[in-house]
Design brief:
By secondary structure, the protein is mostly beta strands. It has a single domain, classed as Roll (Ubiquitin-like (UB roll)). About 10% of the residues lie in helices and about 40% in strands. The chain is built from 1 helix and 8 strands. The strands form 2 sheets. Strands 1, 2, 3, 5, 6 and 8 form a 6-stranded mixed β-sheet that branches. A two-stranded antiparallel ribbon has the order 4-7. β1 (about 10-15) and β2 form a beta hairpin. The termini are far apart. Mean pLDDT is about 80; it is low at about 1-10.
């Protein structure tokens, strides 16, 4: 897993140890780019790879700006515009 600031689409094709090429899918969490070698990922894996505690939560920011909560057991397709953010905390005053 390599960190880089890339778009949320197939970033490149790299070869594994056997010399076969494999696709690398990019996504963004809180402004930091990540790469993943599969086209789908679970919400729990996204949190783990980005270092987000489960109680913090995660939202997906869609292209139109709306935010959708990503549950730990939800499978997310990594494609163009895959941007995620920690769910904001609200404090009562």
């Amino acid at each position: 897993m390599t960190h880089s600031l890339i778009g949320a689409e197939v970033a490149e094709r790299s070869s594994d140890d056997s010399g076969r090429s494999r696709a690398v899918f990019g996504y963004d969490v809180d402004g930091t780019g990540y790469e993943y070698d599969q086209p789908t990922i679970t919400g729990a894996q996204l949190r783990f790879l980005a270092g987000i505690y489960p109680q913090q939560g995660l939202v997906r920011v869609l292209n139109d700006g709306t935010r959708v909560t990503v549950t730990p057991f939800e499978t997310v397709t990594l494609g163009c515009g895959a941007h995620f953010q920690r769910r904001p905390r609200f404090r009562r005053s």
